[in-house]
Design goal:
- By secondary structure, the chain is of the alpha/beta class.
- It has a domain at 1-59.
- Helix content is 37%, strand content 10%.
- The chain is built from twelve helices and ten strands.
- The protein has helices spanning 19-26, 62-76, 98-108, 182-211, 244-251, 263-278, 289-299, 308-311, 318-326, 330-337, 347-357, 363-374; strands at residues 6-8, 11-13, 81-84, 113-116, 137-142, 164-167, 222-223, 226-231, 256-257, 378-383.
- A six-stranded parallel beta sheet has the order 6-5-4-3-8-10. A two-stranded antiparallel sheet has the order 1-2. The protein has a two-stranded antiparallel sheet with strand order 7-9.
- α3 (98-108) links the parallel β3 and β4 (113-116).
């Protein structure tokens, strides 16, 4: 739970809604939120003076209130990523807007927020407001041939920019959506984000087990991923099937998986940590949204002729994430999971670790993780309009 209070214009984000306050608000139509620390009072309602001030949302369009309630619902479903492929037109970033505060809180809950950059390009400063927040992953779009779309919103050369770009085309023709757009690129990036997130969770658990003598042939149980989608048009009948490996897990009635791990992986962790200790380096790693975003950006393939305000770190797809994890050497571990460590150790030492230990995972395991975590994603869908 996020332990803080933030004032948003005349709306207060409450640190915690205690049961008595929630009960009091429910009698006048409040109590709309369960995980987001919001409380609302409908226009014209009266309550006794209370030390915690709440404010109505009526100055905001009803669809934005619905979106807040949708995000709240998705948080209650224990999602691993929040996907917002929304056609917002506002390009003015106000960090105190309730929607911005909501996505910030989701980030602080430890959940990456992936947002469509918008389709207002090729002019500068056309990213939609939600995509300009520094705590979100903002996604631009290419066409099916990998060319940056003219309509993909551009950022500010000295300010907010897309994080990455991805293929914005649909896999099959749909007359409702004849052109590629950032709204289709965004869920593809969300899928990559949960793949990275769950792989990092596995890696951190394996490292812990090796360090504390709990290593076995199977990993700890990892929950299969859930992506939260707040949108208006997701058709469950047109979703792709799970990859066979993920499907076989769900067919057993389980939503958790244990993954085999080799003695070579154990030796890799052992060799890495031994070298860090010899250099008096302590590390602290976590699969938080910032670390996940850093991995995504490191995996991205730069697009020649495109600037950062157009494409961010570059183009991402399953091929780039597979390559990233197939070449996950000690230097990659350090620069993505604990970048401050790279300035505490001689570069020659890091290079020697790379030569001695090589990548952590082989291609076969990376493909298995793709099938499980990249192609086995369950959806929690909030219809917000």
């Amino acid at each position: 739970m996020v332990q803080r209070t933030i004032e948003v214009n005349d709306l207060l984000l409450l640190e915690k809604l205690n049961s008595s306050l929630a009960a009091g608000l429910s009698s006048i139509g409040g109590g709309l939120f369960h995980k987001l620390p919001f409380a609302t009072i409908p226009q014209g309602a009266r309550i006794e003076q209370n030390p915690i001030i709440v404010r109505r949302f009526d100055q905001f369009p009803i669809d934005q209130l619905n979106l807040l309630r949708g995000i709240d619902f998705l948080l209650a479903e224990s999602i691993d990523v929040l996907n917002l492929s929304l056609g917002m037109v506002d390009t003015v970033f106000d960090p105190n807007h309730p929607l911005q505060v909501a996505t910030h809180l989701v980030h602080e809950y430890g959940i990456p927020v992936v947002v469509a950059a918008g389709n207002g390009g090729p002019e500068l400063h056309t990213m939609q407001a939600l995509a300009q927040a520094p705590w979100v992953i903002a996604v631009g779009a290419t066409d099916a041939k990998g060319q940056l779309m003219q309509s993909s919103s551009r950022g500010d050369p000295s300010g907010a920019q897309p994080t990455v770009v991805a293929d914005g085309s649909l896999p099959a023709r749909d007359d409702r959506f004849p052109e590629p757009c950032t709204s289709f690129a965004t869920p593809k990036v969300s899928g990559l984000v949960v793949w990275i997130s769950k792989s990092l969770e596995l890696l951190i658990n394996d490292l812990w087990d090796q360090q504390y003598g709990s290593w076995t042939a199977l990993s700890r149980r990892v929950r299969m991923p859930i992506a939260g989608v707040a949108d208006t048009g997701c058709d469950p009948d047109k979703l792709p099937e799970y990859a066979p490996l993920a499907g076989s897990i769900y067919a057993t009635g389980s939503d958790h998986v244990q993954i085999s791990r080799s003695d070579r992986e154990r030796q890799w962790y052992e060799g890495l940590m031994k070298t860090l200790r010899e250099n008096n380096v302590e590390i602290e790693i976590a699969a938080n949204p910032d670390t996940i975003q850093r991995c995504l950006q490191r995996a991205a393939r730069p697009m020649p002729g495109c600037a950062a305000h157009e494409t961010g770190a570059g183009f991402v797809s399953p091929a780039e994430i597979s390559k990233f994890f197939s070449s996950f050497t000690p230097s990659c571990f350090i620069t993505t999971l604990c970048p401050e460590t790279s300035i505490q150790m001689p570069q020659t030492t890091i290079q020697q670790m790379d030569e001695r230990l090589g990548p952590l995972w082989d291609e076969k395991k990376v493909l298995a993780l793709c099938d499980l975590f990249g192609c086995g994603i369950r959806l929690a869908i909030a219809k917000v309009v």
